Amino acid sequence: MMMKREVAKRLFAFELNRSNHKISQNGEKTPIYVLTPTGEKCNRVFIVGVLLDKEEIRPDSNFWRMRVSDPTGVFVCTAGRYQPEALEVVLEIEPPEMVAIVGKVNVFEGESGTYISIRPEAVSIVESEARDYWVYETAQRTVERIERMETERDSEDIALAWQVYNPDLNEYRQKVREALIVIKEEFETFKVREEEKKEEVKEEKDADLELDELEFEEEEWDLSDILGE
Amino acid sequence: MKGELVEEKVEIISKLTEQITEKFKRSGYEVNPKEISKRLELLMFEFKVPEREAIRTVNNYLMKELDVSREQLSMESPFIKIGEITRPNQWVSFKAKIVQLWDSTSPNVSQVGLVGDETGIIKFVTWAKSGKPEVAEGKSYIFRNLVTDSFGGRMQVNVNRNSEIEEIAEDVPLPPREIKVTGALIAIQQNSGLIQRCNECRRTVSKGICPVHGKTESYDDLRIKGVLDDGENFYEIILNEDNIKALTGIGLEEAKKIAKENLERGVVLQTLRNRLLGKYFTVNGTRGERYLIVNEIDFFRDELGEKIDELLTRLGAEQ
């Protein structure tokens, strides 16, 4: 039986990094989900952020660890030879760079706790526009989840999230607020910069004019004396 | 771990027992929960009978014991909206309209097609042995006691012996077929880019072989099969040459040139991935059974300023 495709969920690094509760159903090949503190059940995620660095986990292992930052924290992503499409891009990319990553959430249970990472299926370089919209979209989804945590306490995943994490929802609200303010400020400075750019362009045009005049004069000069002809 | 498992089993049994006891109680029959639990446990965990079968067996046993018929029990599954169907093996009832009927390809199936309400459209199958009356395209019905199922990765509902279909005068509205979605292009499938199609049937040809016509003459085409995802739903989309050219400036001629310069057709796919993957798009499209047929696609551009302020207000003041 073909499995139904999993939707790529949107959540901030702050929330994903606090998720450690795995949900697996009985049966072969059923997807593994990670329950997040605001009650999202995710298997696949989509993130946009800044690739801070990449390193090969062991020399020549072709297994790379990347750190990707959003306004709330850092996602850890690991790509290896089983993700050839993603790996191809990872090998060529030079951090820092704005990237979009879609991948599966992976929980590793180590001796000193659980580690959560993303196994990329696809990595691509994007512009800051995509990042801004991602932050907005992720903020919106997170707000919706926070509100559901308050109003739908009986729903299965939400009840479980309360039981497992007992989250301080105000902390999540605060993170969303901070993230939104980061891109909002960027917009505002961007707008100012655009205007400055326009000014500059105008000035450059003026300068060009002067340059033309100079060049003109230059042609008028008789250089034969200097060249000793 | 073992203890957990036992606990889990106990929980399942007690839940199912409660359901069955409830059902009989509603019809005015007292049954012994201990007896039910014992039978369920035996069937499900000793003999590994699937849950659904176990429940049915216990129900049948009780009905025989009490000498009541199915009708007297009024076993009605909960009413839901079609959009809420996400899991197989659930008993459901709903009010819906027949969108389309298909030709049945199997003697076991008396009718197959699509049924929908304002929240979604789903495939339905009426088993021949269910002995249910036929439904007609465009008419609305109340469907009771259907079972949800998953086939080929998609959900469907099956009409069985215990189902009821009742025609109603009301006209159930269907979801709009024309939709506008904004999402990230999170996948571009391998069979995208500069492809070859069979001259006879337009199917895609791989290594010169058409799945229907074998070794065949083919022509070049440019397309993208991709997935647009907005975090709540995903949409499988197909972009044709015009769509791709509008977005990237790369049309069929340009794609051929890229392939020729690099001596490799795959470079076209690579180029399209670099340009489009991970970015946000707005699509105006028509919902098909599987694909969202793209009428118009463009890079997403919007003023976020106001939206951000709205969201900040919704978040409330700092605490």
Task: Explain what this protein looks like in three dimensions.
Chain A is of the alpha+beta class and 229 residues long. Chain A has a single domain, classed as OB fold (Dihydrolipoamide Acetyltransferase, E2P) (Beta Barrel). In chain A, strands 1, 5, 6, 7, 8 and 9 form a six-stranded mixed β-sheet that branches. In chain A, strands 2-3-4 form a three-stranded antiparallel β-sheet. The longest helix of chain A has 52 residues. The relative contact order of chain A is 0.14. In chain B, the strands form three sheets. A five-stranded mixed barrel of chain B has the order 1-2-3-5-4. In chain B, strands 7-12-13-15-14 form a five-stranded mixed beta barrel. In chain B, strands 10-11 form a two-stranded antiparallel ribbon. Chain B is elongated, with a radius of gyration of 27 Å. The model of chain B has no long low-confidence stretch (mean pLDDT 88). The interface between A and B is large, with 44 and 37 residues.
Can you describe this structure in just a few lines?
The complex is a heterodimer of chains A (229) and B (319). By secondary structure, chain A is of the alpha+beta class. In chain A, 45% of the residues lie in helices and 29% in strands.
